[in-house]
Amino acid sequence: MTPVFETSAGLLALTALAAYLLGSVPFGIVMARVFGLGDLRQIGSGNIGATNVLRTGNKPAAFLTLIGDAGKGGAAVLIARALFAEDAAQVAGFMAFLGHCFPIFLGFKGGKGVATFLGTLLALFWPAGIAACLTWLVTALISRISSLSALVAAFLAPIWIAVLGMPQAGLMVSLLSILVLLRHEANIKRILKGEEPRIGSKS
Questions:
Q1: For residue 133, which of 198, 66, 199 has the smallest C-alpha distance?
Q2: Is 117 helix (H, G, I), strand (E, B) or coil?
Q3: Less Cβ crowding at N or C end of the chain, within 10 Å?
């Protein structure tokens, strides 16, 4: 199901632009510089997310990156909902996610969007967000593979949305889930080959 459109096209466009710019803020790059870790794009996998920051061995920087990346998705949803309506909240969440994956500040080469996806989901409908986070956590504890945990959480997120009672967000969450899966194409290949790094690995 899709949301009922209540917000004018002009305000939705403005919301989309603001959310995209917020999502484009590369907290991993920022934290790496603040903590003197160098250019994150030249470290580990080259990804700008918290998992790659963790590969530097700096847990505070990784934690702050996680909070920042999740927070920008959640903030986009909550601000749009407070100012306008639920349709704007969904547009904001989607565009913040796109901003993280394709940030204008980094030549449209961004992260894979897992933290932003979870932060967006938590703000959009917290029961489904909690379920997705727990899915990630349980999978991570069992596999010790961050990307696999993200894939399982993303795959199940639309199911959590439907089962827990917010079907009007189903389309948007499904689109985000598909994008998360597509962004992890290389990880899927490494997982199948048994070559995907474990959580905390510096390689």
A1: 66
A2: helix
A3: C
